[in-house]
Design goal:
The structure holds two protein chains of two kinds.
Chain A lengths: L1 H33 L6 H38 L1 H5 L14 H16 L2 H14 L5 H25 L3 H18 L5 H10 L5 H15 L5 H4 L3 H32 L1
Chain B lengths: L1 H28 L7 H40 L2 H17 L2 H16 L7 H32 L3 H18 L2 H13 L5 H15 L5 H5 L2 H19 L1
Helix pairs in contact in B: 1-2, 2-8, 3-5, 4-5, 4-7, 5-10, 6-10, 7-10
The chains are: A mainly alpha, B mainly alpha.
């Protein structure tokens, strides 16, 4: 127990250090340039303390419980002995043999994104600003599906060893084409959702999966092939969020047609 | 009583998918028991408390702060100071970002492996620091461009398409070892504290400038912050 508290203390100190530059910048601009007190100063400071403590608890909890297990599972699932199953170890592996890896990648990508605090923040803001047209849960599920698809495809790329940039460039082309058809109001939010998905929860688990896979698949280099999963996870949510907006618009217009009749 | 418990239940629901996925794979696919159950339960409890506190603090502190600064800058009417603030915020939050520190150390390892730099500790540390500086500069620049876009009302897709072209062109010339790291660096720059603050700033700016719509113009700052590092990291890989 005392080990846990010590860990919590260290992480809290670390979080404070991370936030320090932000606090210094805001404080100096506030006092030198804006020259006005921050409204509701006490409440804002309390909020900041909540955010710091919250993040510290969150990180320590993840490190205690989920990361070690997720890490272990990534290693076990990518272990050739598991992938061969009861079959003959001398058989060469095909990309189909990694089906549990793809499924794990998709579901862990989805699940970690749902719990991603930065995404919750953006979703709350989006629901506020859109007046409820975009719901917190709708956006989060759309982004989570995107991350799941992206990471799953990313593991397929590591298994097959095709160059990363082919996928990313093809993804860009799709994003640009879909931008032409998506409702104008969603575009900026969709582009943002690429960047917010990958922080505290997703990155460590996904990195473990990528490195584990690259180190066990024959012919892959950990250094070159182990990276790139994050890039997939930032690309696909743009497509699914625009898709979500298109779906909502289509459903709304279908309802309108019914009312007209 | 209910309004105290309610946020904790919400946080637990946010976490539920991870618990389900991990239990399913552990128990049914790998067919192994879950080790250290009480340690895991303590961890889950801490995550739930942490997430609840974070979201409460977000609504009390980070959101109002970002918005009030946006309004104050809009009232002041000085674009130069606003852009300077935007740059400082982007640069300052990125340079100390732990995920970035980890990625740049990894990149230095790759560069040493590929023989681009010497395998000495000093060479790798200076390479990693240079990379961090590059990414932080690029994020600072990204927030400046993003704020300019909000002020002027430029459509975001034009800028993003130009950025994508930049990424594609750089990919053709950059050394292959750096490409994976460069593509990933876009995702790691935006931390959990920066995102709400920057989003509130953007939405606040768009709502206080006449003719701008907070929905179409307010978002998009994070998008720039995830795009420019890819270009700059590849450039760094070519120059060094």
């Amino acid at each position: 127990m005392s080990g846990l508290l010590l860990h919590l203390w260290h992480v809290t100190l670390g979080t404070i250090l991370d936030v320090l530059p932000i606090v210094i910048i805001i404080f100096s601009f506030q006092s030198l340039v804006i020259r006005q007190p921050i409204p509701h100063m006490k409440r804002v400071v309390t909020g900041f303390i909540y955010v710091l403590l919250g993040l510290a608890f969150f990180l320590v909890g993840l490190e205690e419980a989920l990361f070690p297990l997720g890490d272990l599972m990534a290693k076990q699932l990518t272990d050739p002995a598991f992938i061969h199953g009861t079959g003959n170890l001398s058989d060469t592996l095909h990309w189909q043999d990694y089906k549990w890896v793809y499924l794990f990648a998709a579901s862990i990508g989805f699940a970690t994104t749902v719990a991603e605090p930065a995404l919750i923040a953006v979703a709350i803001k989006a629901q506020d600003v859109s007046g409820g047209t975009i719901s917190v849960w709708g956006l989060r599920i759309a982004v989570a599906i995107g991350v799941g698809l992206g990471i799953s495809l990313g593991t397929f790329r590591i298994v097959t060893g095709t160059p990363l940039h082919y996928y990313i460039i093809a993804g860009y082309v799709l994003v640009i084409i879909q931008t032409g058809y998506a409702p104008r109001s969603i575009i900026a939010l969709a582009y943002d959702s690429g960047g917010v998905t990958t922080s505290t929860v997703t990155v460590p688990l996904v990195t473990a999966l990528g490195l584990g896979l690259a180190s066990t698949v024959p012919g892959r280099s950990v250094l070159i092939d182990g990276f790139g999963l994050i890039a997939f996870a930032s690309l696909f949510p743009m497509l699914t969020v625009m898709g979500y907006a298109q779906l909502s618009r289509w459903r709304a217009s279908r309802n309108n047609v019914r009312v007209d009749e | 009583m209910l309004h105290i418990i309610r946020p904790f239940i919400d946080s637990f629901r946010d976490l539920l998918p991870i618990i389900l996925v991990i239990s399913f794979f552990q128990l049914f696919v790998l067919q192994q028991p879950i080790p250290h159950l009480e340690k895991i339960l303590t961890g889950v409890l801490m995550v739930v408390i942490g997430l609840t506190l974070f979201i409460r603090g977000l609504e009390m502190g980070l959101f109002p702060l970002g918005e009030s600064m946006a309004y104050a800058f809009a009232r002041k009417g000085s674009v130069l100071w606003l852009l300077l603030f935007a740059f400082a915020l982007g640069f300052g939050t990125t340079i100390a970002e732990p995920a970035l520190i980890a990625v740049s150390a990894k990149a230095a390892e790759i560069a040493a492996e590929a023989g681009v730099i010497g395998k000495t500790r000093a060479a790798m540390e200076s390479y990693a620091f240079g990379l961090r500086l590059t990414v932080a500069l690029s994020v600072g620049l990204a927030i400046v461009i993003g704020v300019m876009r909000i002020i002027r009302g430029w459509p975001i897709q034009n800028l993003i398409i130009v950025g994508y072209l930049g990424v594609v062109v750089m990919t053709m010339f950059a050394p292959p070892e750096i490409i994976g790291i460069a593509y990933d660096s876009g995702g790691v720059t935006t931390s959990t504290i920066t995102v709400p603050l920057v989003t509130a700033l953007g939405v606040g700016l768009a709502s206080s400038i006449r003719g701008r719509n907070p929905m179409t113009d307010g978002f998009g700052l994070i998008a720039f912050a995830s795009l420019t590092p890819m270009i700059f990291v590849m450039a760094y890989g070519m120059v060094v």
